[in-house]
Amino acid sequence: MDISKELGVGDDNLFQIIKKEVLAPSIKLFNVSAPEIAAKAQPGQFIILRIDEKGERIPLTIADFDREQGLLTLIFQEVGRSTKELGELNEGDSILDLVGPLGMPSDIEKFGRVICVGGGVGVAPVYPITRAMKQAGNEVISIIGARNGESLILEQEMRKVSDELNVVTDDGSAGMKGFVTTKLQEILAEEKKPDLIVAIGPLVMMQAVSELTRPYQIKTVVSLNSIMVDGTGMCGACRVPVGSKIQFACVDGPEFDGHQVDWAVAAMRARMFTDEEKTAMDGYHHHAGGECQCRKAE
Amino acid sequence: MSKGRIKPDRQEMPLQDAIERSKNFNEVSLGYTLEQALLEASRCLTCKKPQCIEGCPVDVEIPSFIKFIQEENFQSAINKIKEKNNLPAICGRVCPQENQCEKYCIIGKKSKPVAIGRLERFAADWEMKHGDTKSNIVEPTGKKIAVVGSGPSGLTVAADLAMLGHEVTVMEALHIPGGVLVYGIPEFRLPKAIVQREIDSIKKLGVTVKTNAVVGKINTVDELLQKDYDAVFIGTGAGLPYFMDIPGENYNGVYSANEFLTRNNLMKGYLFPEYMTPIKIGEKVAVIGAGNVAMDSARTALRLGAKECYIVYRRSENEMPARNEEIEHAVEEGVQLRLLTSPVEIVGDENGRVKALICQRFELGEPDESGRRSPVAIPGSEYEMEMDTVIMALGQGPNPLVSQTTPDLQTNKRGNIVADEATGQTSKPGVFAGGDIVTGAATVIKAMGAGKKAAKAIHEYLTAN
After folding, report:
1. Would the CB atoms of B399 and A268 count as touching at under 8 Å?
2. Apex A233 CA angle, A109 and B449, nearest 5
3. pLDDT tens digits, residue range B44-57?
């Protein structure tokens, strides 16, 4: 068989949305037909998609993959114009471009006791890593958090692949009240120390987790969703100092040692296009007929 | 040369007005009129022993095609070029002819050389308007070749092998084929419609182009060879940006030239917010470096609305690596040169945005290993320039995605793939490489030259047994 046809990429290829689900008020799930990417995808990797001819290249972590059915699961939060437009697509619609799997896969092996921490939409990329850690024979304790119970995603899925699942919300409307770090602190205080922490979520959360684990010298893996263009190491937009080196999140990451990441630079670089994001959203409001679609900032 | 022969002067290229063009992305060079082309072609002596061909990396039979122009047989002219060059509309625009064919032109000894590049462009553009491209009718060989990367070397290999009857699939990581021709070289120098047309004509030869295919990720070179392909050509280019390693390089407003140009050219950032990819420029822009990529970046910055734009370069004008024409065009448009100057630090504001560039002055010392006089820093000469955007155009290295995932592919210490200069053969049987991934960042035509050699070698490899 011709691998180029097998590749499922090219001029006349369609990346069709097979299933769409609303997981939380601003968080949506797509199952997208992309057999060749699904065949190669591994936990920790991401894809880049482009909705249409005028679209930007949007990096999204891979929340799951079904090799047999050739499906990728993408879970995204509508934070700006492009992700809102993405969220408007429906089952049966197609995405113009989808490229991947990009980035380095997670390092999955038997570490012993692993704590998987997911915050907000960050639970999505944590899920396949958690599953793989469990399959590799680790004792897996998970902590998933959100602002409130309504925003919490993948609770059932995470429960299935964890030995212990802890739910925390900012307002206590589901699980315990507090932040993921509140629960993590408790676990770290226990006698049996974890061997590895995997934490994915907002930058502030990943930084807080890293600061919390630093004194314990427990290796802490985080995943950076830096601003990217090509996603193949060509442009350097996603650069971030890690230890003494400049690393590109797209090819060297997206996972890095949280104790080595320069969080101040990562946070600063995430603000590069704040003004332009506002301009784009103004255009979106206009395009949506003047109806205000504002949401509280995450 | 007969004394009695009246030669017209070298025909100047009609250009868009400098002030006007610095505000738009339309092509700067408008191309010869028919009259100009005939006058310019008449300057060619169609030498019996032409020197010009020696300067051409793909051996275009220059006097023959110019003779056809003299005879107003334009279809034959372009056919003659295409015997050796599959991308004439591109080469006619971006080749550094002054260092190649035109450098050897005998007329150039006493006067200005024949404008070979402009005539090549004229013939290619004539074909776009009037000609019809022949379709490929060669007996299929049944051999399959995967070409990794759709830049100048990959497209050349693909076209040459397709014309020999092989089945070629080009795999491109980005969503549009063309490589540096699309993401790197701006619209005003090389319109994307021209690139698209050249790619379309290569597709007409039977070449399949797959976009969104990152070799090294969706499949490895070994998988390509095991599953389906008889040979693989790697032409992945110089896709790794260099930074200076000076303080402040991570402030917002510091771009690699690759990022800046990709946002603008591939993603059409200049049309933001109609197109969704933003590009931020501010009023004062410094481009570090003085090659063609630096000139492209500086001229793009002006078109995006920069009020002041500087080329900051640590050597002098004589050492600037860009084509003379590109430097002239940039200066005409208002780009200012800050020569013998190099940044030592980028200063940011409290929000992490670029605020200023601290530069140091240099003077020229003894020649270095490159033969150019080396720049020597003048102690205590540091000064500050207010700046909103800094673009690093310091050259590009080889992108490691393919070599990282192909363990038995030998690379040198810079990460370039080691390949035989004459054949493109790598350390791995059935795998060939050419263009910037082998040589480091060079020119479109050099990459094409490497592609030609590799295509020949791949054909021999595939038909040997």
Report:
1. no
2. 125
3. 999 999 999 999 99
> Left, alpha or beta for A210 (phi > 0: left; psi -120 to 50: alpha)?
alpha
Phi, psi of B69 (to 5 degrees): -65, -40
Pairing state between β A245-248 and A239-242:
antiparallel
Q: Quick one: tokens of B343?
A: 């940044």
Output phi, psi for A19, to 5 deg: -145, 140
Q: Find the closest chain B residue to A103 by CA distance.
A: B217
- Which residues of A fall within a CB distance of 8 Å from B229? 3
The pLDDT tens digits of the residues spanning A69-78 come to: 999 999 999 9
Instruction: Determine the longest span between alpha carbons in chain B, in angstroms.
Output: 72
Q: Which tokens is B433 given? A: 């490489």
Residues of B in contact with A268 (CB under 8 A): 250-252, 351-352
Q: Which residue of B has its CA nearest to A1?
A: B228
**CB burial class (10 A; 0-12, 13-18, 19+) of residue A285?**
middle
Contact state of B273 with A276 under an 8 Å Cβ cutoff: yes
Rounded CA gap, A123 and A63, in Å? Answer: 9
Q: CA dist B347 to B196, B312, B402, Å?
A: 41, 16, 36
DSSP codes, B258-326: HHHHIIIIIS-GGGTTTSS------SEEEEE--SHHHHHHHHHHHHTT-SEEEEE-SS-GGG--S-HHH
Separation of alpha carbons B305 and B389, rounded Å: 12
Q: Which residues contact B96 (CB under 8 A, 6 or more apart)?
A: B323, B443, B445
Nearest residue on chain A to B255, judged by CA atoms? A237
Report pTM.
Answer: 0.92
Find the residue in B nearest to A230 (Cα).
B174
Q: Which residues of B touch A32 (CB under 8 A)?
A: none
- Give the residue from chain A lying closest to B148, CA to CA: A4
CB contact under 8 A, A97 and B210: no
ipTM for the predicted complex comes to 0.91
Give pLDDT tens digits for B279-328: 999 999 999 999 999 999 999 999 999 999 999 999 999 999 999 999 99
Helix (H, G, I), strand (E, B) or coil at B254: strand
Q: CB-based contact (8 Å) between A133 and chain B?
A: no
A contacts of B259 (beta carbons < 8 Å): 229, 235-237
Tokens for B66? 């110019």
- pLDDT at position A287 is 58
In sequence order, what DSSP letters do the residues of B339-350 get, joined into one string? -SEEEEEEEE-T
Torsion angle defined by CA atoms of residues B416, B419, B424 and B429, in that order, rounded to the nearest 10 degrees: -120
Between CA A223 and CA A211 the distance in angstroms is 15
Are B103 and B116 contacting, i.e. CB atoms less than 8 angstroms apart? no
User: What type of residue is A155?
Assistant: E
- Flag whether residue A81 sits within 8 Å of chain B, measured between CB atoms: yes
Whether A86 and chain B come into contact, CB under 8 Å, resolves to no
Chain B touched by A241 (CB under 8 Å): yes
CA distances from A248 to A148, A288, B293 (A): 33, 36, 22
Proportion of chain A in helix, strand, coil states, percent, rounded to 5? 30, 30, 40
User: What is chain A's Cα-based Rg?
Assistant: 19
Q: DSSP assignment, residue B73?
A: -
Q: Inter-chain contact B208–A10, Cβ cutoff 8 Å?
A: yes
Q: Do B174 and A277 touch (CB under 8 A)?
A: no
